[in-house]
Design goal:
It contains six helices and eight strands; from the N terminus they run E-E-E-H-E-H-E-H-H-E-H-E-E-H. With 215 residues, the protein is of the alpha/beta class.
């Protein structure tokens, strides 16, 4: 996989699409037909990059769309079979709608709350075909949602209903990323005296001598 090369103007190209990093939070540029705006600094992008080199999620759900830059980058990095996203904002992002228009298994929902049971159930069961492996939670920035994350309430409930609770072997959490591991059979309880020598995928990524300065 090619490494993301960020230019001096905080722009880069990946997978045939152009991106502009727009930080801080205020006065961010809008995505255009020439380049998507992505509100992630380089350390976050490196986490995405290294995670993509280690796992291949079948389906991805992104909570929070903003200008669609991270949606498009995640799609290019992971190439999932299916991908969906929700945002409470009523304002659609035309370049993002144009991007998904001719792509199978790509969905976005504006004016959609992460606390809407019906929407989440439809996304998890139908759009993502009960194959949700990765959740990117970049929502909950504004009241009344700023004190909670969707995976801790309705989305977690939907995950537990995916076929059978025994299919969820574990959910690894790091910052805003949720990696969902499934098992086809019920796994035995781990031996308390046995050490996990591999650690989670996030441990492997983050324990490589780097210090991440995250926003």
């Amino acid at each position: 996989m090619n490494r993301i090369e960020i230019g001096p103007s905080q722009d880069f190209s990946f997978g045939g699409e152009n991106f502009v990093i727009a930080l801080p939070a205020k006065e961010r540029r809008l995505s255009t037909s020439e380049a998507f705006t992505i509100a992630k600094n380089e350390p976050y992008l490196r986490v995405y990059e290294e995670l993509a080199s280690a796992v291949s999620p079948r389906s991805i759900l992104e909570l929070g769309i903003f200008q669609g830059g991270s949606y498009v980058l995640l799609d290019k990095l992971f190439s999932p079979r299916r991908m969906s996203a929700v945002d409470i904002s009523p304002q659609p992002v035309p370049p993002l709608l144009a991007y998904i228009a001719d792509k199978e298994g790509r969905f976005v929902h504006f004016s959609a709350s992460q606390t809407d049971r019906k929407i989440l159930e439809d996304i998890v069961r139908n759009e993502l075909a009960d194959e949700l492996d990765l959740v990117v939670d970049d929502a909950s920035h504004d009241a009344p949602f700023s004190k909670r994350h969707a995976l801790s309430n309705l989305l977690f409930e939907q995950l537990m209903l995916m076929g059978s609770t025994s299919l969820i072997s574990e959910i690894r959490v790091w910052k805003f990323l949720y990696l969902i591991r499934k098992a086809t059979t019920v796994l035995p309880a781990p031996d308390e005296g046995q050490k996990d020598e591999t650690g989670s995928i996030f441990d492997q990524i983050l324990n490589r001598g780097r210090e991440w300065s995250l926003i």
